[in-house]
Amino acid sequence: MAPVTKNGSRLRRVSLEVLGWTLVIVGIALLVLPGPGMLTVVAGLAILSQQYAWAQRRLDTVKDAALRAAAEGVSNWRRIATSCLGALTVVTVGAAWTLQPHPPQWWPVAEGWWLPGGVLTGATVIVAGLIALSLIIYSIRRFRRR
């Protein structure tokens, strides 16, 4: 019985490590792409922190930075309105991407380069915008409560 648990433990450890590093790498990419980059990095570090002390220290640092940024992002109504407008713009772009309109007359390159990726790309952009809206609402509820 003990060898099965040991192999199961190794499999669990390797699986968690692969998942944690994957989330960290994807999160770093999402910092510049549309998507919840900081949230994904935090999730990856949270998984890695179960096995590594350095990940726990980084998790605390990243989590503190994310909470400060969230609080600052809802510090006044102008920032909230701008953030909501940005998130709704992302949702709108995702919807347009999903509908795959024809390229405009001014489009300078081949038609195949207009909104590549199709419906799946549009759907992920929509999801990113909805996640952004939900994080704005969360931040308002957490940091603007008086």
Short description:
This protein has 146 residues and is mainly alpha-helical. The protein has helices at 2-30, 37-48, 53-73, 77-99, 118-143. It is flat, with a radius of gyration of 20 Å.
Describe this structure in words.
- By secondary structure, the protein is mainly alpha-helical.
- It has two domains: 1-73; 74-146.
- 76% of the residues lie in helices and 0% in strands.
- It is built from five helices and no strands.
- The protein has helices at residues 2-30, 37-48, 53-73, 77-99, 118-143.
- α1 (2-30) packs antiparallel against α2 (37-48), α2 runs antiparallel to α3 (53-73) and α4 (77-99) packs antiparallel against α5 (118-143).
- It is flat, with a radius of gyration of 20 Å.
- The chain starts with a helix and ends with a helix.
- The mean pLDDT is 86.
* H and E order: HHHHH
Q: Tell the overall outline.
A: flat
From the alpha-carbon coordinates, what is the Rg to the nearest angstrom? Answer: 20 Å
| Helix content range | over 70%
Average predicted confidence as pLDDT: 86
- Count of all domains: 2
Task: Profile the largest sheet.
Answer: none
Oligomerization state = single chain
Parts with pLDDT < 50 across at least 5 consecutive residues: none
C-alpha end-to-end distance: 56 Å
Count up the helices.
Answer: 5
Number of strands: 0
Structural class: mainly alpha
What amount of the residues lies in strands?
under 5%
